[in-house]
## 1
Amino acid sequence: MRQAGRYMPAYRKLRERHSILDLCHTPELAATVTLQPVERLGVDAAIVFADILLPFEPLRLGLSFAAGEGPTIARPIRDAADVERLPSFSIDAELGYVFEAVRLARRALPDDVPLIGFAGAPFTLASYAIEGGASRSFTKTKRFMYQAPDTWHLLMGKFAELVGTYLAGQARAGAQALQLFDSWIGCLSPDDYRTFVQPHTTRALRLAAAAGAAIPLIHFGTGTATFLEDFAAAGGDVISVDWRIPLDAAWTRIGDKRAIQGNLDPAALLAPAAERDRQVRDILKRAGGRPGHIFNLGHGILPETDVAAVRAVVDLVHGA
Ligand code: CP3
């Protein structure tokens, strides 16, 4: 996740001349960025360069990325009329540039480096659409959810369908695994997760699996330790966990039928080498050499990260 990004000089160089949306909209550039971390870091897989919020453009929510401030949505969703007004659109026509980036990246990658496609999960998309950007407390989202549950479910249903179909399209274009990002799901109580989110995530993952053939689905969330069983029950062949729970404890709760991804704190990459390496080894020890562990960060890489530190972790994991 966020393998590329501002911590990587080759990416920053391209960003001097192109906005993030330009990079996403231009499949040749997106494919180039997709390959950068593979070349520089030696990671085992690539994730296509795109963003979870791109579907907001054809939904006409007014997506932009302000420098240093993250995403902004000019026309957030605030009531039932806004939900009903959401246009239906052809994913192939409006987001086909992502499929093209998948095709180009797949062609350019070495055969033994799989390509991951991705999308935002219904809840995380809804939170951006309702808040109008990033949020700390998600109060607008929760107020919407509690005040207008029917409209909430209508919106989540629309996002589930959109995301499932979009993921399936990436699979058809050549993605060999699909990751669903529910980045902010940890703000909910276990009860609210089950009531307001879980059925929609399940639907999105089923749609992706049905049309996307038998490729692995990675279900990503952060802050899920309080409802990990329910989060895993929503679906996914691989469950991604963050550093707030030890990897072995999480795996026990997920069950040994499922693979696990995680879970280094991205902040460990800012620590002195000895402390960073200690944390990496601890995760590997907790995985115990069992098949089905994908070593990863628990969340996106921080912009102030030194590329050499990331490379050192990749090498340490590969040498273990
Ligand atoms: O290797 C890669 O970078 C893959 C492409 C990728 C991006 N975004 C490009 C991007 C992926 C997988 C994402 C996922 C994404 N986008 C998520 C889910 C993962 C997570 O981190 O939780 C979320 C929540 C978003 C929404 C988003 N996009 C935010 C909050 C921001 C701004 C904050 C930040 O960290 O910069 C973005 C911008 C963004 N998307 C950047 C990149 C590389 C960095 C901004 C830039 O280049 O100016």
## 2
Amino acid sequence: MEFNHLTFQELDSTNEEAIRLYQKGELSTPTVIHSHYQSNGKGYGDNYWESAGGKNLTFSIACFPRMIEPSDQFILTQIISLSLWAVVSEVIPAKKIAIKWPNDLYVGNKKVAGVLIQNFIKGNSIDFSVIGVGLNVNQKVFLSDAPNPTSLIIETGKIFDTEVLLKKILQHFATYKNNLAALSLSETIHTRYLENLYRFGVFHRYKDKEGIFTAEITGINSFGQLKLITKKGEKRVYGFKEVEFL
Ligand code: BTN
């Protein structure tokens, strides 16, 4: 998969720019929209994505994954999470890197990257997908009330070239995506995702609308929902934002 590249000094949000271009009919091939600064970076829900200008990676992959059925859209989450996992693990070999469901990247118990995917469905396929990635690279101080941010420089004391990191992430992503049609790849992807999933198979505390409980992650279903089993053996399934990791 080859990407067109659009690079900006400043945008409101790379996801928003991708959607605007798609809606104007100006995108027809896979395109990476990369901005050195976002004035209104979007996180999940109403959250703002903090990223100091010129220090980090903020980009969106705009693509047309028409061979993926809407019910299988979690595959895109897994592919981008694994691509980030591979690159961050390579640059921070000494620390435990994990994917926090559904698609945050953690170093230990701190968040180094977040992903915001926006899919546009037509009929029975994903017509257009924007996969927005914020990777904290050379920023040392975070001002927002995000609970536990970290960055590559905080973890290693080293400055990284964001362009090199971007290239590596895109290489992993393209390799996964190009091989998706291969029979067993989606299973391999899912196995790798679980192998690197934060808190997989270990009891921890969670909170849902009923209150706090202790449970273990047992897996993720094909819709991307989190499967937990409580200490009492009760099985529970959650969509995103329906359960909080404590
Ligand atoms: C989250 O963890 O809440 C998701 C954060 C996603 C941030 C990235 S930065 C590039 C892209 N453009 C945006 O406005 N948001 C995503």
